[in-house]
Design a protein that fits this description.
mainly alpha, 4 helices, about 45% helix, elongated
């Protein structure tokens, strides 16, 4: 079970405290509590541009948009180590739906640079507004 509570007011903070107090300690699977500033999600415009670029670049070099997305994720998204219950560590990569606004901007910049270096004409981010 995963739960996130955004602390916007005292009532939500109280709910977070109650949720932590209700957690069972000492079970087979330890729980993790993370407190951090709320991340700004990517915008729908960024996501739309990402898929337009995957489509345009992919068409130019013979890939479907999903295949092009896999290539860009592999090329530009850093891996994250996850530890399985067995203790084994695996490396995973965030998919576009999980990127923050800053991560999406950075990857789109890489994609635009890639297209320019390959001589592929694409939409400029301003063209989609």
């Amino acid at each position: 079970m995963e739960r996130a509570i955004v602390l916007l007011d005292e009532a939500r903070r109280a709910r977070a405290v109650e949720a932590i107090a209700a957690c069972r300690v000492g079970g087979a699977t330890p729980l993790e509590v993370v407190i951090r500033p709320k991340r700004k999600p990517k915008t729908l415009d960024q996501l739309a541009l990402y898929w337009v670029l995957c489509t345009e670049i992919g068409a130019a070099i013979g890939y479907a948009k999903d295949e092009m997305s896999e290539v860009f994720v592999e090329k530009y998204v850093p891996p994250i180590a996850r530890v399985l219950p067995s203790g084994e560590t695996v490396l995973v990569k965030k998919t576009p739906s999980k990127w923050s606004k800053a991560e999406a901007s950075q990857i789109i910049d890489h994609m635009l640079r890639f297209a320019a270096e390959e001589g592929i004409e694409t939409h400029h981010p301003g063209d989609l507004q």
